[in-house]
C-alpha cells in the first residue's frame, strides 16, 4: 500500500463507520500482506462481511479486489521497493557498496514470485497429492535438510502418515516399501544437487509416485521426473543463495493443504493438543 493511501486511511479513520474502521485497521497493520489478500480473506481477518470489504474498496478508489491487489503489487514491485521505513534505514546504514541493499531487493522480489506460484497449474496438483496420499514422504539433503524436516514436522500435525526421508537406511522403504497404495513425495533441493535427490526423483518417476519438487531455477533435471515443480528465485548477493522462498512456499502449501483436508485437521490438532497437555510438552 502506498504511503499516500496509508496516510489517507489514518487521516480519515475517525470518519469511517465501525465496520470500515475494522477493515482500515487490518490494512494499516498488514500492508505487506495486501498484495496477496482477497476480499474474502480481508473480511475474515477483519471480522466483517465480504460485501462490506467490497464496498470499502470502492470507497477508497478500487472497483474490486483484483484491481486493489494489482495496485498494491505494482507499488511493491516498482523501482526501489518500499515495504516500510526500515528499508530506507537499511540503505542509509549500508557500508558495503550497496551489496546488502541489493540483496534485500532480490529477496523481496523472490518472495513476491513465490506467492505467484499459487496461481500455477502445479499448485492444485501438489495440494491434491499431499492431501490424498496415504503416506507422505518429505526429503531434503545437506543444507536444505532442515527446511524439509521442518515441513515434515508441521505437516504431521495436520495429517497422519508423514515421514521425513533422510535415506539413512539406504532403502527409502518408508515410502517405497509395501503397505501403501498411494504415497507422495515432497522434495526440497538447491544447488549443488545431491546424488540422493536424483535417485529419489528417478525412483518416484519409475514407480509413478506423485512427486513435488521445491527447488531453485537452476534445477534443470526436476522437470524430467515430474510436472509438479516449483522453481524459485534464490539469487543472492550474500555468500549463500537465499532459502527464504523455499520456507515461504512450504508455509503457503501447508495452508492450502489445511483447506483441502477440512474438518479432519481440527480433529487431529485437538487430539495432539490433548497429548501435549498430558505429557506437558509446553509450559502453560
Q: What does this entry show, briefly?
A:
55% of the residues lie in helices and 9% in strands.
User: What is the residue-averaged pLDDT?
Assistant: 86
* CATH homologous superfamily (4th level) name of the largest domain: Glucose-6-phosphate isomerase like protein, domain 1
Q: Helix segment count? A: 13
User: What is the H-and-E element order?
Assistant: HHHHHHHHEHEHEHEEHH
What does this structure look like?
55% of the residues lie in helices and 9% in strands. The protein has 284 residues and is of the alpha/beta class. It has two domains: 3-77, Orthogonal Bundle (Arc Repressor Mutant, subunit A), CATH 1.10.10.10; 117-277, Rossmann fold (3-Layer(aba) Sandwich). β1 (135-139), α9 (145-158) and β2 form a beta-alpha-beta unit. The two termini are 38 Å apart.
Keywords:
single chain; alpha/beta; Arc Repressor Mutant, subunit A; five-stranded parallel sheet
Topology readout:
Blueprint: H1 3-12, H2 18-29, H3 39-46, H4 50-59, H5 65-77, H6 85-93, H7 99-116, H8 121-132, E1 135-139, H9 145-158, E2 162-165, H10 173-176, E3 183-188, H11 195-206, E4 211-216, E5 228-232, H12 244-261, H13 263-278
Parallel strand pairs: 1-2, 1-3, 3-4, 4-5
Amino acid at each position: 500500500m502506498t504511503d499516500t493511501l496509508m496516510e489517507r486511511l489514518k487521516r480519515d479513520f475517525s470518519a469511517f463507520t465501525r465496520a470500515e474502521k475494522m477493515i482500515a485497521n487490518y490494512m494499516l497493520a498488514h500492508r505487506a500482506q495486501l498484495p496477496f489478500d482477497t476480499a474474502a480473506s480481508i473480511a475474515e481477518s477483519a471480522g466483517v462481511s465480504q460485501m462490506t470489504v467490497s464496498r470499502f474498496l470502492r470507497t477508497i478508489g478500487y472497483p474490486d479486489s483484483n484491481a486493489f491487489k494489482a495496485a498494491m503489487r505494482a507499488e511493491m514491485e516498482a523501482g526501489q521497493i518500499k515495504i516500510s521505513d526500515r528499508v530506507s534505514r537499511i540503505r542509509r546504514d549500508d557500508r558495503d557498496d550497496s551489496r546488502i541493499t541489493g540483496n534485500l531487493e532480490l529477496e523481496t522480489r523472490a518472495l513476491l514470485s513465490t506467492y505467484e506460484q499459487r496461481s500455477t497449474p502445479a499448485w492444485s496438483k501438489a495440494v491434491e497429492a499431499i492431501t490424498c496420499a496415504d503416506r507422505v514422504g518429505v526429503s531434503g539433503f545437506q543444507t536444505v535438510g532442515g527446511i524439509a524436516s521442518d515441513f515434515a514436522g508441521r505437516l504431521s500435525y495436520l495429517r497422519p502418515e508423514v515421514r521425513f526421508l533422510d535415506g539413512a537406511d539406504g532403502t527409502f522403504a518408508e515410502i517405497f516399501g509395501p503397505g501403501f497404495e498411494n504415497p507422495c513425495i515432497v522434495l526440497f533441493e538447491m544447488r549443488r544437487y545431491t546424488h540422493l535427490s536424483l535417485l529419489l526423483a528417478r525412483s518416484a518417476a519409475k514407480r509413478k509416485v506423485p512427486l513435488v519438487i521445491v527447488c531453485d531455477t537452476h534445477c534443470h533435471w526436476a522437470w524430467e521426473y515430474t510436472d509438479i515443480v516449483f522453481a524459485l528465485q534464490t539469487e543472492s548477493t550474500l555468500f549463500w543463495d537465499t532459502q527464504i522462498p523455499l520456507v515461504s512456499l512450504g508455509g503457503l502449501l501447508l495452508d492450502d493443504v489445511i483447506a483441502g483436508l477440512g474438518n479432519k485437521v481440527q480433529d487431529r490438532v485437538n487430539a495432539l493438543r490433548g497429548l501435549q497437555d498430558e505429557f506437558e510438552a509446553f509450559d502453560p
